[in-house]
Amino acid sequence: MKYINVILPLPLEGLFTYSVPDTLAESVGFGFRVLVPLGKSKTYVAVAVRVHDEKPDFQVRDILAVLDQAPVVLERQYRLWQWVAEYYMAAVGDVYKAAMPAGLKAEEGYKPKTETYVQLAPAYRSEQALHRLLDDLRRAHKQQAMIIDFLALSHWDTLSGDMPQEAVVEVARDELLNASHGTAAMLKALTDRGVLQTYEREVGRLNTTGTYSPNKIKRLNANQQEAYNAILFQMLRKNVVLLHGVTSSGKTEIYIHLIQKMLDDKRQVLYLLPEIALTVQMMDRLRSVFGPRLGIYHSKYSDAERVEIWQKQLSHNPYDIILGARSAVFLPFQRLGLVIIDEEHETSFKQQDPAPRYHARSAAIMLAAMYGAKTLLGTATPSMESYYNATTGKYGLVQLFTRYQDIQMPEITVVDIKDLQRRKMMTGPYSPVLLAAMRRAFEAGEQVIIFQNRRGFVPMIECKMCGWVPKCQNCDVALTYHKNMNVLSCHYCGYTYRVPEQCPCCESKNMHGVGLGTEKVEDTLMQIFPEARVARMDLDTTRSRAAYERIISDFSAGRTNLLIGTQMVTKGLDFDRVSVVGILYADSMLNMPDFRAYEHAFMLMAQVSGRAGRKGKRGQVYLQTKNPQLPLIRQVVDNNYEGFFRAMCEERRAFNYPPFTRLVYIYLKHRDNPVVESAATYMASVLRQWFGTRVLGPDKPAVARVKMQHIRKMVLKLEQGIDLRAVRQYLRQAQRQLAADTRYAAVTVYFDVDPL
After folding, report:
1. β-pairing, 42-52 with 159-160?
2. Residue 235 and residue 713: Cα distance in Å, rounded?
3. How confident is the model at residue 634 (pLDDT cuts 50, 70, 90)?
4. pLDDT confidence of 591, banded at 50, 70, 90?
5. What is the pLDDT of residues 44-98, one digit of tens each?
6. What DSSP line would sit under 349-400, residue for residue?
7. Which of 150, 152, 161 minimizes the C-alpha distance to 127?
C-alpha cells in the first residue's frame, strides 16, 4: 500500500497523510494534484509532496482521484513554498493558496473569465449619424454625456465622414460607467434605443503576438555600457547586485541587454514589477523586442490565462521571460538564470493580507539562489535594507547617476504654503506658482502630473457645529466621502453609509469636508482649467485591467494632458511630454506614526519628481509644504540619497530599527475588546520570559478595530545574528500556549515578519 503526504489549501500547519488505492498507485507522484476527503462531506484539491510506503500509526483515508498526468508543482517550487512558510511563519497551505491560480485549486477546473464590453451600433458609425444622435439626445443630458464619453474612450469621436482618424479601441462596460459617472440604467437606456451594444469577451489570452526581434535592442551609451559591464563583473562574485540609477538613466535598456544575454545562454528570466500599472508600458517595450518569448502574469489577468501560463511554464516550450507582479515569483521555472526586481524599494512587493505576509523581493532572491541564478535589484531610491546590504558588501553595488541623453534632473521648487495661506494667496490647495506653471505647460502642449496620496473626495466630513464625524460601524476609522458615487465609504472593510443631510447629533445642516482626496483635486482643477483633458489614477479608477491600460496609453499618446493620482503615478512610469509635476501636501506623508515615514516620503517625492523632464527639456517640480526647513526636503531637492541614507542610519541605529535589527509584529484579534486585551497581556508576559526587553507592547495600533475585530499589537526587535529559527519556535510555542487557555481559544494570533 502506498501513502502520500499532501498540502491542503487551508490555513493549517503541516502535511496530511492519505492512502493510495492500488488502482491509482502508478498514477501519482510528487507535485501531482489529488482529490482528497476531509471531514464528513468536504473534498479538496491537494498537492502531493511525498509518496512512500510508511504506514502511519493512525487511521487514514484513501485519496479519491488523481487530477494530473504530470506534476504541476516542481521540487524547487515546493522548496520555495517551504521557505516562505517557515520564514514568514505562515501555514504551508496558505502559501499553496497564494501561489497557485484558483483554477488549479478547484475540483471542476477553471472557466474562462469574461468581461462585458460596449460598442457603437453600426447604424451610428458615421459623422452624420452621430451628429443626429447627439442632437436627438439634447434633452437627455445624462445619456448625451455618456455617449460623448464613450466616443472619446473608443476614439469614434475622430470620425471624418465614415472613417475614424484613430484606431477604434474596445471599451469595457465598467470603464465607461466609471469615466462617465453614469449608471447601469443609463447604459441600458442607450442599448434599448439601439445606440450602443454590449458583448462578452474573454479577458486575457496567452501572448503569441509579435516576433522575436533582437535587432531592436538599442545600443547602450557609454555610461550604460559601463554599468552593464560592472553588473556582469559584480555577478561573478555576488549573487545579488543593486543597480542604483537615477530616474531616466536608462536602467530598462540595461535590463534588456541582460535578458538577451540570458536568452543566448538558454536561461529564463523573471522580471518583477511592484504594480500592475507598470506592466503596461514595460510589456510594450519588452514585447517589441522579445515578441512571443515574453509572458505576462499578474492578478488583473483572468484566472484562465494564469492557469494557461502556469501550464505553459511546465511544458517543453515555456516562456523565456516572465514579466509580472509579486505573485509571479511562485510560477514554475525550469532553467531560471536571472531575476530582475525593478523598483525594488516599493512596499507593494510586500503582501499584507491575507497570509502568507511575504516580501516578493526576499522570496525572489531565495528562488534565484535555489536555481543558481543571479538577482538584480534596480531603483533610483533604494530601500534602506538593500542599500545597507550593498554598502556592507553583502550585495554588489553599481551606480548610474547620469540621465539618458544627458537630460538634467528636474528643478525642484519648494513652496512654503504655510506662508501663502497666512497671506491668503492660495487657491484652495494650489499655490500661485504651481497654477502658473501648469498654465504655461498646457499652453505649450505639454503635460502635468499632480500627486496627492489620498483617494476619494475628502478623507472625512465633519459637523461644523458639534464636531460629529461619521465613522465605520465595523472599523475604528472615519468614512471617506466619494463624490462620484455620493457615498461615504470605509477603505478597510468596504462599508458604505449614505451622505447625511444633517448632523444626527445636533441636527445642524452645516456639514463640511475635511482634507483633500484625488477626486476633489480632479474636480477643482477641471474648474480652474476647463480646457484640460484630465485623467485620474487611483484605486477607484483602475479596478479593471482595461482601465489601467487606457489611462496610461491615453496619457502616453497625449489624449489627456493632466494626470492626477496617488502613489500609482510615482512608480517608474515613463512619459515624454511631462514638464510639470506638483506635490500638493508633502507633510501628509511625513506625519505618519511609522518609523519608515521619512523613508517612504523621500522615495515617493523623489520618484514622482523623476516623472518630469524626459526629452529635450528640464522638468519643473513644485513641492508644497508647511515645513520647508526640514532636512529631508533639502535632500529631495538635491537628490541627495547618500545624505538621506546616512541621516536615517544614525536614527535607526540609535533606536534599534532595521537595517540594524529584524522586526516581527505580533497581532492578536478578537470581537471582544477585554478578551483581546487580556490575551495580549498574557502573551506578552510569556514572550518576555524568553526575549526580555526585546518585546514592546502590547499596544493598540493606529486602527484598533477592523471588520468588528479588536486588535492588539506587539513588536519584537531582534539584533542581527540571533538564531531566527529558534525565535520562530518560541513564537509558535507562545501561540500554542495561548490557544490552550480556554479563555483565549477564539483569539486569532498572526505574525508579520520584516513588516513595512
Report:
1. unpaired
2. 41
3. very high
4. confident
5. 999 999 999 999 999 999 999 999 999 999 999 999 999 999 999 999 999 999 9
6. GB--SSS---BHHHHHHHHHHHHT-EEEEEESS--HHHHHHHHTTSSEEEEE
7. 161
Q: What is the DSSP string of 688-704?
A: HHHHGGGEEEEE--SS-
| Alpha-carbon gap, residue 202 to 216, rounded angstroms | 31
For the record, the C-alpha cell of 357 comes out as 505576509
Q: What is the mean pLDDT of residues 603-622?
A: 83
Residues 6 or more apart in contact with residue 26 via CB below 8 angstroms: none
Pairing status of strand 578-583 against strand 620-625: parallel
CA distances from 408 to 404, 615, 667 (A): 9, 10, 47
Q: What is the DSSP letter of 600?
A: H
Dist. CA 701–CA 694, nearest whole Å: 18
Q: How far, in Å, CA of 364 to CA of 272, rounded?
A: 9
HEC sequence for 126-168: CHHHHHHHHHHCCCCHHHHHHHHHHHHHHCHHHEECCEECCCC
The predicted-structure confidence for 117-159, as pLDDT tens digits, reads as follows 999 999 999 999 999 999 999 888 899 999 999 999 999 999 8
33 — pLDDT class (breaks 50, 70, 90): very high
Distance CA 251, CA 603 (A): 17
d(CA 48, CA 3): 10
Task: DSSP letter for 478, please.
Answer: B
Q: Which regions of 370-483 does DSSP assign to beta strands (E)?
A: 374-379, 396-400, 411-416, 447-451, 460-463, 480-482
Nearest to 172 by CA among 192, 200, 147, 207: 200
Of 4-8, 96-100, 183-187, 730-734, least confident by mean pLDDT is: 183-187
| Three-state secondary-structure class, residue 203 | coil
- Identify the burial level of 283 via C-beta atoms within 10 angstroms of its C-beta, where 0-12 means exposed, 13-18 middle and 19 or more buried: middle
Do 20 and 63 meet the contact criterion of CB atoms below 8 Å apart? yes
Q: Which of 276, 314, 311 is nearest to 296 (CA)?
A: 276
Tell me if 412 sits within 8 A of 676, measured CB to CB: no
Can you name the residues that pair with 268 across neighbouring β-strands?
336
What are the tens digits of pLDDT across the range 653-690? 999 999 999 999 999 999 999 999 999 999 999 999 99
Under a CB-based contact definition with an 8 Å cutoff, are residues 19 and 61 in contact?
yes
Between CA 717 and CA 657 the distance in angstroms is: 8
